[in-house]
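Handout, section B. The chain below has 192 residues.
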Amino acid sequence: MITRLTTSIFLFIINILAITQVYADNQTVDPKLRLLLTEAINSSESFDDRFHAEVWLVDMSTRLQRYVKDEKIRLLMLKQIHLEASRSELQPELVLALIEVESHFDSYAISKSGAQGMMQVMPFWLNEIGHPEDNLIDIKTNLRMGCTILKYYMDMEKNNLHKALARYNGSAGSKVYSNKVLIALQRHWYQS
């Protein structure tokens, strides 16, 4: 029984690695995005003042509780999401909605195509920016790269959310994914 389970897990991991490599080999890398990711890996900042931080963190922590039960982890996650979204000039609530759709806040999530972490970043980016040793399961790394990529697509699409989100998801031309994110934003994260 244990041998079968071990073999199954091993085969699953090999399959994911093979799929990831095939997908990575077929990617066309935009040099501007590579440069932005390289710069993003090397910087930081966040809230304007303590009051704003406390109000936002308390509000969002309550909303995030359904996905992340541990309060300390939830607050650390929210601080990092706010930091990276703000650094990339994105609305933190938009990033929260995207993460809800992509991974349901599971930092260990791995998609069928090999995308990893909360924001489902493709691992080929680590090699492209010269950081093959970085770990996309690490929340800070995943958020830094995911927010940088999303901001790049927002700029590319002149802040058209549908088009930028579709590019982020690899579904350009379709509104299915972007509608999911926008519905999550409206229902769970939007601040009135």
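Note. The radius of gyration is 17 Å. Compare this with the example in section A.
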